[in-house]
């Protein structure tokens, strides 16, 4: 009873204070009432913590494998049977190619069949369909990049600066995580600056426009780009970091696969609750001049994610601080924008460069 009276008193005081505040600053009432920044930045502008599950499971499984005697025996037998060059070049090429096509292939099945529904319902831009003919076109470019860019790069690295292959060179768990973290940092820096440079109007049409052909990309389209772009922005940052650090070939190969899976997820168009969100990069493909980096650290520093964060904050205000609902709302708006643009724009101007949707599409619906 006493609690109820106290609560009633507090409510009445706060109602009076609110009424006074309304009279004192009526213009503030027009603005959305956002929760404190400390409470909204992480959950809204980044994926939910559960979306780290897939990455953590992958890392945990690799660390566990590396610590096992089975792994050490496997590496010993490989080193006894094949040359250092063969393991570094053919081994790494075979594994990374298989992983890329397997992961992109799983997303392709859902894209083309809309099955299983439990996955397809998380498609960010469900109105934008990539046909099987377009898929074939993407596959051709992805295969070309693998054969003529990844292949020679791995062969060159295997010839000039091969990674150690003996089981005795397998690093400990913390060192392994350090190598992977260094690679992620290198990709964040290298990809951000090269990618942003390619959005310069003088370079865009020649080097990057092809990658933006699909405003609602699919997983396989992660490497739908020209040779120069694939080498400089997608591969070089990690290749340089690994060449300098020279970890065991298994760590370098896993890191390559980990980055491949990340970029396929980023282009997949699916915002799965337990895997890496595609929302950030999907927004880049839709808006062109925001979200250049893979993680978002440099976008935050250089303020190149302003419209993305504004859209998320606006959605959060409308959802009264509920981050889950805010994300859903933004996903719906992104899909609605895409759908509206499709209806409004002639097909000839639809798939255009940075002066297209990015400039004409405002953030205000
Ligand atoms: Zn992309
Ligand atoms: Zn771009």
Automatic annotation (TrEMBL):
A biological-process GO annotation:
lipid biosynthetic process
Q: Where is this region: Disordered?
A: 1-41, 340-365
Task: Name the residue ranges with Low complexity bias.
Answer: 1-24
GO terms, molecular function: iron ion binding; oxidoreductase activity
> Keywords on this record?
Membrane, Transmembrane, Transmembrane helix
GO CC annotations, alphabetized: membrane
The keyword Magnesium appears for this protein: no
Presence of the UniProt keyword Transmembrane helix in the record:
yes
State the compartments where it is located.
Answer: Membrane
The record's Pfam families line, in alphabetical order, gives: FA_hydroxylase (PF04116)
Q: Could you list the residue ranges that cross the membrane?
A: 87-110, 174-194
Q: Which InterPro entries match?
A: Fatty_acid_hydroxylase (IPR006694), Sterol_Desaturase_Related (IPR050307)
Report domain Fatty acid hydroxylase positions.
182-304
PANTHER family documented for this protein: STEROL DESATURASE (PTHR11863)
Q: What is this protein called?
A: C-4 methylsterol oxidase
* Protein species of origin: Jaminaea rosea
